[in-house]
Design a protein that fits this description.
By secondary structure, the chain is an all-alpha fold. It has nine helices and no strands.
């Protein structure tokens, strides 16, 4: 009688297939959002575009909002990271410029604006959006600002929370209303609110 192998069997390629399907769903969701808007975005349409079963999506995500949140979290981590090295006035200004470009041109920027809008009338979306995206990013942005202030790189005229609101608020409002954010606007915000020391 052959010896029994007590080691657990290794999955062949299921994990790789699952990851490919997960990525396909995320890409399908933000593509369809850009093409058709949030109201027309359905799990059925995402499943068709991604080439997966609808049941597969519901096994991983409870709603289309959670799919968009995963897309947003992953894409901002790659394409809009908060500076982690010692921040300077220039690196914060560059982050603001990148943020404006992200909202204007990146499909994940559309996810961000959509979730902001949906949060205004859906408490469930608001709670999930705040917990999973807004709060962690806010903590990272405040840490960036605090470190730059403590190092003497900037001297904000407001407290940390109000400073971030004053820097990001006009950019978000412009994006929500379809107004282009110019470099001059970003530079003026940075110069007047951060007041970097010479």
């Amino acid at each position: 009688m052959p010896a029994v192998n007590s080691q657990p069997r290794r999955a062949r390629s299921g994990n790789r297939r699952d990851e490919a399907a997960r990525v396909a769903v995320l890409h399908a969701a933000d593509d369809l959002l850009v093409e058709h808007g949030f109201a027309a975005l359905t799990v059925e349409a995402i499943a068709r575009r991604a080439g997966v079963a609808k049941q597969t999506i519901y096994r991983w995500w409870p709603s289309k909002v959670e799919i968009l949140l995963d897309t947003l979290i992953e894409d901002t981590a790659k394409r809009l990271p908060v500076p982690t090295e010692l921040p300077t006035a220039d690196s914060i200004r560059a982050y603001l410029r990148d943020f404006a470009d992200f909202l204007a041109a990146d499909p994940a920027g559309k996810c961000l604006l959509t979730l902001l809008a949906e949060s205004q009338h859906d408490p469930g979306t608001a709670a999930s959006f705040h917990e999973r995206y807004l709060e962690p990013r806010r903590i990272a942005e405040l840490e960036m600002l605090t470190r730059a202030t403590e190092a003497g790189e900037v001297a904000p005229v407001l407290g940390p929370e109000a400073t971030m609101d004053a820097l990001l608020g006009p950019i978000v409002y412009s994006a929500l209303t379809g107004v282009a954010v110019t470099r001059d606007l970003v530079d003026t915000l940075a110069e007047n609110i951060l007041r970097p020391r010479a």
